[in-house]
Amino acid sequence: MAKIAVLGYGTVGSGVVEVINSNNKVIGKNAGENIEVKYVLDLRDFPDDPVQNIITHDFNDIINDDEIEVVVEVMGGTSPAFEFVKASLEKGKSVCTSNKALVAKHGSELLRIAEENKVNFLFEASVGGGIPILRPLNNCITCEVIEEITGILNGTTNYMLTKMTAEGLEYADVLKDAQEKGYAERNPAADVEGHDTCRKIAILSSIVTGREVNFEEIYTEGITKVSKTDIDYVKKMGKAIKLLATAKFDGGKMWARVSPVIIEPSHPLGNVSDVYNGILVKGNCLGDVMFYGMGAGKLPTASAVVSDIVDAVKNKGKNLGFSWSEEKQALTDISTVEVSKFVRVSYSVKAEALNAISQTFGDVDIVEAGIENEFAFITPLLAESVIDKKLSDLGNSEGVGEVLSVIRMY
Amino acid sequence: MAKIAVLGYGTVGSGVVEVINSNNKVIGKNAGENIEVKYVLDLRDFPDDPVQNIITHDFNDIINDDEIEVVVEVMGGTSPAFEFVKASLEKGKSVCTSNKALVAKHGSELLRIAEENKVNFLFEASVGGGIPILRPLNNCITCEVIEEITGILNGTTNYMLTKMTAEGLEYADVLKDAQEKGYAERNPAADVEGHDTCRKIAILSSIVTGREVNFEEIYTEGITKVSKTDIDYVKKMGKAIKLLATAKFDGGKMWARVSPVIIEPSHPLGNVSDVYNGILVKGNCLGDVMFYGMGAGKLPTASAVVSDIVDAVKNKGKNLGFSWSEEKQALTDISTVEVSKFVRVSYSVKAEALNAISQTFGDVDIVEAGIENEFAFITPLLAESVIDKKLSDLGNSEGVGEVLSVIRMY
Fold it and tell me: Fewest beta carbons within 10 Å, which of A170, B200, B308, B405?
């Protein structure tokens, strides 16, 4: 019987307890022994929940109990999560967490401490919720040179973009709906500004490169500027819009970017809708593989956490070596990366505007969505900085009003 | 340096040699030591290929060489593959194979022999080509009660159905095209009759149940009867048609089925096109996860084989316990399973035919594809045997001509 402690009895924490209780037979079989939740740490009491019998308000009860083999950190935030996790690892307890903020900020250090103490720091649930992605990267795709990872890594924004597209709604309206449904927080910045997605692609990139990728250096643009009109154009083109995180790897170099991207609906990621996530991995021999599923939600996320607990218990006393070094990975500036962009412009004189565009970008595809005094076009594939310079010139051209919006194409 | 032998220098065998040579650095890192191909067994010589230096025509060279730790069986067929694999395992060599026919027929016995000899019998490439699916089932989804697996497991037939749909072609024409492109064999039965898919769902089901699922007991219907006209109706309904393998698990019971199925294009499997495969796994807590990628092809398949080699080398002297028993899994007769079916009927008197259908099935959706003297309808959800009995009655009803085709709905 392996005894564990759960830090935090919120959505994921209560899900972890539920998964362990309902699937204890299969868990016991796969872990090699049964698993018992001995403590749940929370500031609150839960008088109507059987969990009350094992609630503690004092982390010392857990850290000083040598019976506890695995600590499950599902509190969120980086403090005191970091201090608790660090102390647990140093005491020879493995830690499993769903906390992407913690992993993105302190992963390198915590992985090193786990290794030094011959325990494991595991965080499958921190990316893609219930979708197995970190373990496949570490354990399954073991003979590939990974060239690219592109993912829809945030269910809230994917739900919002899906709903804006399906129902022709404005951003503000779907945000309100997502908040009412509990998909988006009252302060939605972490989701809608792309910060959550950014931390996840940083974690994936660290696994691929084996070095620390600083999430603060990743170019990150959320969905707050995507309008109903933009989506009208996207639909007109028969395409879809997604908040994509992309990281490309080439030898020791890499770049990464989070932004809304227009994509073919027949692309495997183009069909990932609602709160689902999809993560595409491109290997040099394997080609594209994609992992799809619920990127959030109580039980799917808890399921990923519990699969980590199973691994930790099964590999007692043995660090699994799923790690990256504290060496910093340099990121190539994305302004040098080639991309094609969808550009909406207003005009005073259409013929002059069309002429200015063809002078600036050559022969491009023009998209009309039946909106007065504006149209859109697709730039050729050029370095971001070149496109941006050309767009700034274009804004000053005869007959052109202003550049109304710019969205990358996949 | 781990030394291995490759049995068979066909498409997959030469791919294995290529992946090991081109990705040797990452492979060495993940396996813990470098991997060298010491022998390739083939009846042929390859005078213009560097592989000629390590070609042997005699399996005894391999089996009697104690340096060989891993034998890679990529010959196909069950004999002499079975004898070679068995002898290798008994000699304490791990075996990695892409041979689904071998695994479906002799998997239980070979897994037992591997366990007895503290080596591994691994076959990631036998299902889904390059897609990691067996290892995720064994290693990642470890706290779930698996309720269903449904997959597009054969790239050839998926290519054919995709092409029939996109280009409005007849079965015979796309078969010819697939044969010309090398996707389909001269004798295409293994693919088009569903036998290949059947073996793969049997392997997946054995992993889930932990018992031997006899592929010969799985109801299997290929795509040979799917016509251009059927697909006209499918398109009219805004849906897609796929050759799906489904297995459902409930306690100790299960059923499995391979057949063409009509599915929503927005369903994750509905968007899996061309030679791609997709495998959806439903867990009781996790919900749906899907694994997508190239289900065949030289390098993707070889990549999965090499990931098995990495595992075998990394776990020298230790059976990984990815196994099922030789106990037989009972299959529930699918005639008792509820399903909804698409039915095309011809008529002599339309009003009478419609009346007969509503007498037989109640209020159903009628689909017209603008074809003279016929229409289609969708039955309610009923046991297969009940639907079949009702359809036989319907064929004898006043005004009804005959039942032209019947396809299951997802």
Answer: A170
